Structure formats: structure tokens, C-alpha cells
């Protein structure tokens, strides 16, 4: 894919970045990103990626807009209450970003539909709001060899993790860090969260996605924690669990192939 004159001018500020350049911009335009969850994280990530020139976005969410969403899910308005989030977000983005092919999936991801929903995706953004869904997305991405960027925000705490077993197998997967036996109860619906806190993590997640697509130091295998009260960011380098029930077999297959 090559840029025409209009596209070159439109994305000129991005192309000026030596780390991105024309190669990175064409990579974005060729990419297909699936976003699971079009809430506080997902609707902002979708806007950033569509604006950056990502060629195709699949938006997945079976939930409907509620009035309590509006302080942090900024693409929605009160008149959207009761409508499906994925469809509303896709319609609004289509009106602004003609270069982006937008697909809205009006459903929740589950074991039965996950492979179909994530089919042909070059990257998955996990913007879901519950532990069980994150485990399912991780399982599907590992099984189908799709890299993923996982973010969460609750209270004044945010986390960001990139999983890419092809580029960084030693970093493991989400299950290595948070085994499915772990009990996680915190959710923004019960604990609370501020809009800007979600915005910070969504910006980081979108930035990480762009870096990954353009092959700019993706920081795979590294957990980032952000404390919104102290404004302190901490990084931890991860090591794969050699007995992980999710990624052990996939990493072994890759190792055998390379040998």
C-alpha cells in the first residue's frame, strides 16, 4: 500500500516522526485491529486509532449506552442511551474517518464466537471490564497467534500489558501474570473511576497499539502500573510461567519450529 498526496498531507505530522515515517503510516493503513469492549477505554482507543489511519477496526460490545457512562465514555451523548455501544461508536467514527473500515459487532465475546470475531485481526485491544473476559481473550489470542494490548483502569489505578509470543515469548501471556484461579473483584461499576484516569490508560493503550503496528519498541512482556493519585508509573519485566496452561504449548511449538 502506498500513500496518495491527500493522505500524505493528512497524516504529515505522524509521517514526520522518524520512528514512524511513511513505512509506519502504510502499516497502520494495512492493519486490522479488533477492540473488545467499547466503554471508557475502548471508545477512546477507537477514536485515536481511526484518527491515526488504521485501515480496519472491529468494535465488539453487546452493552448499551447508559447515562452513568457519559462522564468517561466521551463519544456517547445522552441521546444515545439505550443504543448499542459498538454500533453508535462505529456510526460516529464513519462520519469523520472515511479511510477507516468500521465493523460493529453487537454482542459480547464468548467461547462460541471469539474465533469468528477476532478472525484476520492483526492486533487485539482488550478493553473489557471483567477478569473472565480477559482470560478468554488471552486464550484466543495465544491460540490464534494474535498479539494483544491489555489495559484496565479502576479507582486511581491503571495497568497496561502487551502480549506478543512471536516477538517476545519469554514475557509470557496474561494468564502467566494473572492465573484464572485468582480472585478479582474490583470493577469501576462498584469501586468508581474518574474520566481522566480512564483517558490516561486509553491513550497509553492506543499509543502502544500504534507502536506495535509500526514496529516501534512495543515493550512486550512488560507490565506498566500507573497510580493516578501520586502520578507515579512503575514498570516490571515479566517472565513466562513455564507451566502456564495457556501459552506453554504455543511457545513450545514456536521453539520447535525455530530449531
From TrEMBL:
Gene3D superfamilies: NAD(P)-binding Rossmann-like Domain (3.40.50.720). Residues 11-245 form the THIF-type NAD/FAD binding fold domain. InterPro entries: ThiF/MoeB/HesA, ThiF_NAD_FAD-bd, Ubiquitin-activating_enz. This is Thiamine biosynthesis protein ThiF. The gene is thiF.
